[in-house]
Specification:
Chain A is mainly alpha-helical and 266 residues long. Chain A is 73% helix and 0% strand. Chain A folds into 2 domains: 46 residues, no CATH class; 209 residues, MetI-like fold, CATH 1.10.3720.10. In chain A, helix 2 packs across helix 13, helix 3 crosses helix 10 and helix 7 runs antiparallel to helix 10. Chain A is globular. Chain C is mainly alpha-helical and 320 residues long. Chain C has one domain: MetI-like fold, CATH 1.10.3720. The two termini of chain C are 20 Å apart. The chains are: A mainly alpha (266), B alpha/beta (415), C mainly alpha (320). The interface between A and C is large, with 109 and 113 residues.
């Protein structure tokens, strides 16, 4: 009886969560759709919007740029954040708590106000309108350091000690003891880091001007006209932009679940 | 056991990608084009949303005539254009030439960011050319113009047995027709005109009022005329026009309503001609009804040369071609894009022959009595303040008198 | 080796660990001071260098901008602390902070409770729980640009789905985002909906780290489900809760996207939040100096709130 209630509750919740996505998909399949209530099953469903989308921009190039930048920044952030997390959780050094607060402080000034100084800095470095400029602000992530610090803290310190007895230094311990045991957290962070790069808009908007370097959110923004917008095309773009993150999430979920399955063995 | 996300692999891949980021993509564009051409960069917004091809055609045509110049177009959607432009200007990396709407032109001109142009202005409609002068200097060229007319659904008028609007309609005629045409049970609304800054300064002129005093030092719209204009606009909401709660103000709400045949009269710009070409009902346009005066809103975009440009002559040559060449006129007319700012009305004849709407002459008739938006240095703050206060009146959160008085007080603070 | 080994001796952070544990820590007394500094530098440099270059330097520059009048077009003009003085005496600033605090006060409890409920429900041996988890996470990965428009429509007072459903059960729905009193709750509702999946995955990871033996032991003691939740789950989940609260507060103070698309700060300024003002000041009003000053006021508030939490965590956060 309680199980049935649980199932019912979880299912209703899932429908509420999924509804907007369903709405997006249906609108994208309804040629000429406006914003508002689409028919649940469009009269004449069609892929016109997707075709328009492919014609409206150098779509594959834009997709490749976005993927490339998102993958690179995710991998970089995984490594740089995990290392810093290890330092904050396992090494004792003067000013550690203060430095951690400095890391957190980098999250506290809104991007809207950093964009102009950062842009001027990029001009000084001669990096305006380059991939490097797109990547630069997302090499490291204080959010990731914080998230992974909590994960390192959950790795039993006896394991470090055992490794030390075997003569391992911090680098060895990090590489072969801590990193493998952090995988659920790493997988979670990978999804979030990828998503943050993938959806990033303001910084690419100002720093990129060559069409060849455009990322997906920039490309999709061109679908909003000054006076009118073809909503079915916008929704098609939205659907396409969700797919890679959804795939990544499903792939990452495997690692998160693995952690559960293992703890279930005990 | 295999570790698919081994640290070494991740680190190696990350390093590889980071390094290739630094090697690839840097300096994608050189300052000199192929064969020692001069590169003129041009930032703009108005081709976004369907006219990108047409702008490319104009540029290609210019480059054929000027083989020494390579025009590089950088298009950004209107919503984000000024964010990008301002950041570029702050960093000193703005394009040689860029587009500005009339309201923003003043800010840039006052800031000394624009190069003075040396043009023979004979090709342009004089009033449009003058709009881009500042302290006696020609700091920009008009690029296009458009105006606002009254769109109406002929089928709805016929069904309700209401006579169609004519050029000598006044607010009273519009109000009476709107009431007769509104059929809330059928979801049909008589009228649509949002209570915003852009409608208000125009309605104010129609009522015979002034937005600012002659010397521009204070507001003048907290007057009987101002209250009449605000009452006219705010009174529509909920009576003959959907309220905010019913969706008004949501993006594309009004155009969708008109396209679906559920809106009898609509105050909108001539840029909607193209999007409405294929609707399954008869529609036409007429000059907007006035009150004691006739007054139509005119919008004009201009193009300017940056004071920092290293190639001001080439940039100016491109802008002259872009704004007044026959190629541009033909391209704009054929595409149904906003109209070219040229003086020679004969060249605009093909525009009048297209339908719908049948009464395209209204586009030019409206130009006989136009009103430009008041422009101050803190323009956007003024527009936001006026729109917010009028919105309060339309939603019934304030009386019209209170809203007008509050708007005037807020704008006075900005002057 | 199993990851389920109970993390009995985790080090507490940031409070100093008891001396005994310090003694048992690895390598701490091995090697000389220089070598230890080198190791710390090795682990921190990859993140500290880019963060300094690409975040801290622009932050400091923006503090410099805050001391100037600057419309981004003409050269900057030094005005000292005038921008701060002006902002602190401007009612709009206080109103924006008030609205932002109101947002946080509604959003944080709601998103945490919903996320916790989802995490608890989906941590059970439910069939198809992976599908459910994916469904709950989906809104997190969508972009506000589209989703906020959808919520605007769902919460449309006259023809939105929510009021329609409320009408079916005889409730006369409110004016949502058109009513100054209901606009912020509308934004909070949409935000909690979008972010609860984020809270869920963080808490799920935390739940999975709780050793099953503790529950077994508690059951043997004859405890009720509520007691187990109260005395085992909640305390052991506290590190994850701490993370969620700190991050949600930092992000909550910077709420912007959903407000911008859903209400644009209206109606009658009821949802005008701090970052919206910062955006308007910088890019629409040509007042970059004021915008920078405002963001440093925001920074000061967030920093104090965060320090209070970090200091306070030792009272309620248990690292196993």
């Amino acid at each position: 009886m309680r199980r049935a209630a649980l199932y019912a509750g979880v299912t209703v919740g899932a429908l509420v969560m999924l509804f907007p996505f369903t709405w997006t998909v249906i609108t994208s399949l309804t040629p000429g759709a406006g914003l508002g209530t689409p028919d649940l099953i469009p009269d004449e469903p069609g892929l016109d919007a997707y075709r328009t989308l492919l014609d409206a921009m150098p779509f594959w190039r834009i997709l490749a740029n976005s993927l490339w930048i998102a993958v690179a920044s995710t991998l970089l952030q995984l490594v740089t954040s995990a290392m810093a997390a290890y330092a904050f959780a396992r090494l004792d050094f003067p000013g550690r708590n203060a430095l951690f607060l400095v890391y957190l402080a980098t999250l506290m000034v809104p991007m809207q106000v950093l964009v102009v100084p950062l842009f001027i800095e990029m001009r000084e470095l001669n990096l305006v309108d380059t991939y490097a400029a797109l990547l630069a602000p997302s090499i490291a992530s204080a959010f990731g350091v914080f998230l992974l610090r909590q994960a390192v803290a959950q790795v039993p310190i006896e394991l470090d000690e055992a490794a030390t007895i075997d003569g391992a230094g911090h680098l060895r311990i990090f590489v072969s003891v801590v990193w493998p045991l952090m995988r659920p957290a790493l997988a979670t962070f990978a999804v979030l880091a990828f998503m943050s790069s993938w959806n990033s808009f303001l910084w690419p908007l100002v720093v990129i001007r060559s069409p060849e370097l455009m990322t997906l959110p920039l490309g999709l923004s061109t679908l909003h006209g000054q006076f009118t917008t073809e909503w079915d095309v916008v929704m098609a773009g939205s659907v396409i932009s969700i797919v890679p993150i959804a795939v990544l999430y499903l792939a990452a979920q495997k690692y998160v679940i693995q952690g559960v399955a293992r703890s279930g063995l005990k | 056991m295999a570790h698919p996300i081994r640290l070494g692999t991740v680190a190696a891949a990350a390093t590889l990608l980071a390094l290739s980021a630094c090697s690839q993509g840097s300096a994608t564009r050189e300052d000199s084009g192929e064969d020692g051409q001069v590169v003129v960069r041009y930032m703009e917004f108005s081709s976004n949303g369907g006219n990108e091809q047409h702008l490319e055609e104009i540029a290609a045509s210019f480059e054929r005539e000027n083989p020494g110049i390579d025009v590089q177009i950088e298009t950004t959607p209107y919503a984000d254009y000024f964010t990008k432009l301002q950041t570029a200007v702050a960093g000193g990396t703005e394009a040689d030439a860029f587009e500005l709407n009339y309201e923003n032109f003043v800010t840039y001109a006052e800031s000394g960011a624009l190069a003075e142009l040396d043009v023979d202005g004979g090709a342009y409609t004089p009033s449009l050319l003058e709009a881009f002068q500042h302290d006696g200097a020609q700091l920009g060229l008009p690029e296009s113009f458009s105006d606002v007319v009254l769109f109406y659904n002929k089928d709805l008028f016929a069904a309700a047995g209401v006579p169609e609007p004519t050029a000598d309609w006044t607010w009273e005629d519009e109000r009476a027709a709107a009431e007769a045409l509104t059929d809330t049970a059928a979801g049909v609304w008589g009228d649509y005109q949002p209570a915003t800054f852009h409608e208000f300064y125009k309605a104010l002129a129609q009522a015979g009022g002034q937005f600012l005093t002659e010397d521009g030092s204070a507001t003048a719209f907290n007057s009987p005329e101002g209250i009449a204009a605000a009452t006219w606009l705010a009174g529509k909401s909920g009576t003959v026009m959907p309220t905010e709660a019913e969706g008004a103000g949501t993006p594309d709400f009004d155009s969708t309503l008109f396209r679906e045949g559920k809106l009898a009269m609509w105050h909108s710009g001539i840029w909607m001609f193209g999007p409405l070409a294929d609707v399954p009902f008869e529609w036409d346009v007429v000059v907007e009804p006035g009150d004691v005066n006739q007054a139509s809103a005119m919008f004009t975009n201009g193009v300017v040369v940056s004071a920092n440009s290293e190639h001001p002559e080439e940039a100016q040559a491109w802008l002259e071609f872009l704004t007044s060449s026959d190629t541009t006129v033909d391209t704009r007319l054929n595409a149904g894009w906003e109209l070219p700012p040229i003086a020679d009305q004969d060249k605009l004849a093909p525009y009048l022959e297209q339908t719908p709407p049948a009464n395209r002459q209204a586009v030019f008739d409206a130009l006989e009595e136009t009103v430009l938006p008041p422009v101050i240095v803190r323009q956007q703050e003024m527009q936001d303040a006026v729109t917010e206060e009028l919105g309060n009146a339309a939603a019934g959160r304030k009386t019209v008198e209170q809203a007008v008085a509050d708007a005037a007080a807020r704008v006075d603070e900005l002057l | 080796m199993s990851t389920s080994t109970a993390p009995r001796t985790q080090r507490q952070l940031p409070p100093s660990p008891p001396p005994k544990r310090r003694h048992r820590s690895t390598l701490r007394y091995g090697g000389n001071r220089l070598r230890r500094a080198g190791i710390v530098a090795l682990f921190l440099a990859p993140s500290l260098i880019p963060l300094t270059l690409f975040t801290l330097v622009p932050m400091v520059s923006s503090l410099w901008v805050a001391l100037h009048d600057w419309n981004l077009i003409t050269p900057m003009e030094f005005v000292g602390l005038a921008n701060f003085r002006e902002l602190l005496t401007d009612g709009d600033t206080w109103a924006a902070f008030g609205h932002t605090l109101g947002y946080i006060a509604g959003y944080l409890p709601l998103v945490y409770l919903l996320g916790l409920a989802a995490a608890l429900a989906l941590n059970t041996a439910l069939r198809g729980r992976n599908v459910f988890r994916a469904a709950y996470f989906l809104p997190v990965v969508t972009s506000w640009v589209v989703v906020a428009l959808l919520w605007r429509w769902l919460l449309s007072p006259a023809n939105g789905l929510v009021n329609h459903v409320l009408g079916l059960v005889g409730i006369d729905g409110p004016g949502w985002w058109t009513d100054p009193a209901w606009a912020m709750p509308s934004v909070i509702l949409a935000s909690a909906w979008k972010d609860l999946g984020f809270v869920m995955i963080i808490l799920l990871a935390g739940l999975q780290a709780i050793p099953g033996e503790l529950y077994d032991a508690a059951r043997v003691d004859g405890t009720s489900a509520w007691q187990r939740f109260r005395h085992v789950t909640l305390p052991l989940l506290s590190p994850s809760t701490f993370f969620v609260v700190v991050i949600s507060l930092i992000n909550g103070f910077q709420v912007f996207d959903q407000v911008y698309v859903m209400t644009g700060g209206g109606p009658a300024g009821a949802t005008e939040v701090v970052v919206q003002q910062i955006y308007d000041l910088t890019f629409r009003y040509g007042r970059a100096g004021d915008a920078s000053a405002l963001s440093w006021l925001l920074f000061a508030v967030v920093l104090v709130v965060t320090i209070v939490q970090v200091r306070g965590q030792r009272r309620w956060v248990t690292y196993a």
